[in-house]
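Give me the fold.
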Amino acid sequence: MDNALSIFEERMTMKKRTELAHLSIAQAVCVLILLLFVLLSVASGNFKVNTDTTMLWDINDGWIDENGQVVDLYDLAPGKQSVTLDISNKNVDGKAICFKSIDTNFKVYASNGMIYDYEPVMPRQLGASYGMQYHTIAIPEGSSFLRLELEPVFTNISAAVNDIAISEAGQYMTGVFKRNLFSFGQGSTTIIIGILFVIAGVTGQIVMKSTGIDFISFGISCVMIGFIGFNDTLFLQVLTARPDIVRVAEYLCLALIPFPALSFFSSTTGESHPRLLSGMFAACLLNVFLQIGLTLSGTSDYYHLVNISQLMILVSFLLSSILVFRAVRRGQIKQTLLRSVEWGLFACILGAVIDMLRFHFMQSYGSLTFTRLGVLLFTAFMGIYLYRDHIDSLQKKQRESAVFASEISEAFAKVIDMKDPYTNGHSVRVAKYTALIAKEMGYDAETVEKYYRIGLLHDVGKVGIPKAVLNKPGKLTDEEYDLIKSHTLKGYEVLKDISIVPELAVGALGHHERYDGNGYPNGLSGDAIPEVARIIAVADAFDAMYSDRQYRKRLDFDKAISIIREASGTQLSPEVVDAFFRLVEKGEIKATK
């Protein structure tokens, strides 16, 4: 009954798996249909947007300086500037002048006088620069001109105003965030990835333990880079209305990033570098305190000292490259990890170099777009490595478990055969015949190996049979025969709780069931008998006849196989018997001396 219940449960499990597979396919089809509908709608639609024709984007043209000369607002000369725009012929009712200022104090005048003054007073520890901020300034009704008096925070640079427009304030800010959506997504994704790596590292997930890699440091680096990336979107600046604090926090992140980055790459080499990491940590702290000190004293500013942080980042990447190169030469790093680290490191260095060049030559003001792309690529490479490493680890454990199970099975088989010197080697021979038949029937290598182990332990229940009964040379009494038959149930009880190969118990329980239903212990018939038990039954019957016993010599080979053929359809499964005789024809099962 237990065997029948096991078969029923197995069939129900297979049914559930099939249902889940069908459900997954159905869900995928639904998603595909939805995507196709959206794509077709976009391709065939003729949707027209009602635009506000009075919204004047990019009003860079028409500005004149105090000398009446036309100026390019996006390319001003260093120092203070006063520029004016004639708006008498523009519809500006209900509109605002909107723009982004970068390290520039300014005042805005309209026909009726000054309407806006932006010159933030910041604590000394935050320096002189506030970074970047968006402004939307309502234009008074009836205004005929606008004048901007611009004064850069640092005297040696130009006043910087970008994205200037006359628009409805809400529409302008919506457009700003739409244009910066990609950068916002990059930064958010990088932060989320970093947090996940930190959580995984702190909680000690099995993947992190098995790799030995410092993913906490990698996660911290990602969080810092993602936070700096919000500089592009100005989301935090607008949300907090404190662009100065956001700016300084970003600069300090730049100053600290070299340490966790180096710590991560150091861990990939499989070797600890405590002195190097301690030195980098001390250098990062020194850089932070140096920048704070020089800014507090008014000697310099974070804006000018960012070069030190950028240099340290490059040094960190250089040291990381050297560590990885040394580990490769010493054979201390896995090839799969090496490829991921090499490509990831290259992507990070290339992205960092591009952003540094943009900062110095294209006035990108600390944009880390390419650095974030490098980090995301590196994360993808590490994700691929982790997946492969996890699969390799699982496969290794599976192989080790298979070897262990096989060795344990063989050890048990020897114990079983030691119980009866006349049948010594019987369990191993039955297991070999079982494996040959299973392979001939088309089972895969994994199943063949599993059936071999099941065959080894099919008679484990005989350990519980008294030796006097098991080795009795004469005819058994009914009570003794019943005791012998109980070895199937005893074997089942011994093996039923071994979860690594649950079919072990099936083979022990069912190998004396008959195809016609007259076997024991449960009287199962036909396909109700588990396949492995039907195979073992043929292998066991053949070896029982073709080996010496305490009460008789072994039968002739031809006689033994003829009895096997006669038992087909009654005692033995016809399908298994057919496979057995194909092996005989091939010479894989043959007479021995």
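The domain at 187-390 is CATH 1.20.1070 (Rhopdopsin 7-helix transmembrane proteins).
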